[in-house]
């Protein structure tokens, strides 16, 4: 039997309400929905009108569906700024559902090199409104080819950003640069271990890959190969590689693997900043220690660019560097995004220190997940962390993933992100004392998660 999950007329009544504007909270409220839109928001628990479905939310918290401005792995087509082969459809479906079950109803997939018609493929459309950013510029494509590019065909190589923007297929640019092309996390967990394994038959952990990388190339990847042979030999021993690699061979391997795409990727950042200013579109930039100064330079050169510095809590930063970089960029009008990565619960490779410090400093505009090798923790868990630790109040924290991203990406999400009349009825109902416990999710008034279970993913 086909379950009818559309509610042409629905009342969600009785729960507490955070509207998403950063300030408003109601102890008890009711939301009335007609044909996918919010039509009325009132205090207290209202009675259903005739023909109206009712969901009682007493004791729970209602808020807008979350908007994730920086995710990967939710589309088919070339994956990541490295233009790598597409992920398996099963993996994409799993990632999409994981986002939905954690309360996300809108998302920007920022891999950047896939074309609009590649988004769904065999999977078909998903309940989450998945938008794609584009970074199809000549230098970004060159950077992808320098590190991988196996997912790219002549269609991608011949595509031009101005045409994609011109025909209305793309309203957001980026991700300019990426962990693969700019020596970031994907180098540590993917490309460096792969290259070392190919050469020696030994596989190393991501944390060791990062230490070797920083020891040889410097933390800013500025080629400052100041590492003395002795220090490097000690590290090689610790990694169990001393019998397989000389220090010279390691230097050469890391330079080929990490630095090869960097120059093209940096040129790609400049192309995207210029395009953002020309087209008047928001643009998402990979932000990490090696590129922080470059983003500042671009923000000064292109005052009309609408720049977003992604994952400002990137693990390449020490705490004080992350805060200073974010402060400098914010002063230049750049929006500051932080990503959950795997640092809220999973703690596989990253810790929460940079995230906490940026939140405490009041510098953060939005919270996204990024990818973290597929290990990303939910945005709702990050919100719970912020609230439980009293780093921000509830309305201000919730705005980081609702009203704020809607305001930063109005061409994508101007119709949602707030609980108020005429907005799209994307609604999340969760436990009041722990936002990460998601009970119900509605997309345009249609129930897609019920009692924490997938109800209608298509
Ligand atoms: Zn990135």
Question: What is the topological layout?
Answer:
Elements (H helix, E strand, L loop, with lengths): L8 E5 L2 E3 L6 E2 L2 E6 L2 E7 L9 E4 L3 E5 L1 E6 L17 H13 L2 E6 L19 E4 L5 H10 L6 H5 L2 H6 L6 E4 L8 H16 L5 H12 L11 H10 L8 H13 L2 H18 L2 E5 L5 H10 L4 E5 L8 H13 L3 E5 L13 H8 L5 E3 L10 H10 L5 H6 L3 H6 L1 H4 L13 E5 L6 E6 L2 E5 L2 E2 L4
Parallel strand pairs: 1-6, 2-7, 8-9, 9-10, 11-12, 12-13, 13-14, 14-15
Antiparallel strand pairs: 1-4, 2-3, 4-5, 7-16, 16-17, 17-18, 18-19
Bound molecules: zinc ion (ZN).
Zinc ion binds next to loops.
Q: What can you tell me about this protein's structure?
A:
- The protein is an alpha/beta fold and 458 residues long.
- Helices cover 35% and strands 19% of the residues.
- It contains 16 helices and 19 strands.
- It has a seven-stranded mixed β-sheet with strand order 3-2-7-16-17-18-19. Strands 11-12-13-14-15 form a five-stranded parallel β-sheet.
- Helix 6 packs antiparallel against helix 7, helix 9 packs parallel to helix 10 and helix 11 packs across helix 12.
- The radius of gyration is 22 Å and the shape is globular.
- It binds zinc ion.
- The site of zinc ion has 6 residues, from loops.
Offer a few descriptive terms:
458 residues; alpha/beta; Urease, subunit C, domain 1; TIM Barrel; seven-stranded mixed sheet; 16 helices; 19 strands; binds zinc ion
């Amino acid at each position: 039997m086909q379950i009818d999950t559309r509610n042409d007329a629905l009342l969600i009544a009785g729960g507490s309400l955070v509207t998403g504007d950063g300030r408003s909270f109601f102890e008890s409220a009711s939301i009335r929905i007609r044909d996918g839109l919010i039509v009325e928001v009132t205090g207290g628990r209202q009675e259903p009108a005739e023909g109206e479905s009712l969901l009682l939310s007493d004791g729970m918290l209602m808020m807008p569906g979350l908007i994730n401005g920086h995710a990967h792995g939710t589309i088919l087509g070339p994956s990541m700024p490295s233009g790598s082969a597409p992920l398996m459809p099963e993996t994409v479906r799993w990632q999409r559902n994981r986002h939905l079950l954690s309360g996300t109803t809108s998302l920007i997939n920022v891999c950047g090199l896939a074309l609009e018609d590649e988004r769904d493929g065999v999977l078909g459309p998903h309940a989450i409104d998945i938008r794609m950013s584009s970074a199809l510029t000549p230098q970004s494509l060159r950077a992808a080819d320098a590190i991988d590019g196996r997912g790219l065909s002549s269609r991608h190589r011949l595509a031009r950003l101005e045409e994609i923007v011109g025909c209305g297929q793309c309203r957001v640019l980026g991700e300019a640069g990426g962990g693969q092309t700019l020596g970031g996390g994907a180098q540590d967990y993917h490309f460096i271990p792969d290259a070392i394994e190919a050469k020696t038959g030994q596989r190393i952990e991501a944390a060791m890959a990062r230490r070797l990388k920083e020891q040889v190339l410097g933390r800013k990847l500025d080629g400052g190969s100041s590492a003395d042979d002795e220090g490097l030999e000690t590290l090689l021993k610790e990694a169990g590689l001393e019998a397989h690699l000389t220090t010279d061979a390691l230097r050469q391997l890391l330079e080929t693997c990490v630095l090869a795409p960097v120059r093209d990727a940096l040129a790609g950042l400049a192309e995207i900043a210029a395009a953002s200013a020309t087209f008047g579109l928001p643009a998402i930039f990979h932000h990490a220690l090696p590129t922080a100064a470059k983003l500042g330079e671009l923000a000064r050169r292109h005052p009309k660019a609408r720049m977003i510095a992604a994952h400002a809590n990137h693990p390449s930063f020490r705490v004080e560097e992350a805060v200073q970089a974010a402060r400098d960029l914010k002063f230049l009008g750049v929006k500051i995004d932080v990503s959950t990565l795997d640092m809220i619960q999973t703690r596989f490779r990253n810790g929460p220190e940079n995230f906490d410090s940026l939140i405490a400093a009041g510098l953060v505009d939005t919270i996204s997940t990024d990818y973290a090798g597929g290990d990303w923790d939910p945005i709702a868990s990050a919100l719970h962390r912020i609230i439980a630790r009293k780093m921000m109040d509830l309305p201000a924290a919730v705005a980081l993933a609702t009203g704020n991203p809607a305001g930063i990406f109005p061409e994508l999400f101007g119709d949602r992100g707030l609980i108020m009349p005429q907005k799209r009825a994307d609604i999340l109902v969760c436990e009041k004392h722990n936002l990460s416990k998601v009970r119900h999710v509605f997309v345009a008034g249609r129930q897609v998660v019920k009692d924490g279970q997938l109800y209608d993913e298509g």
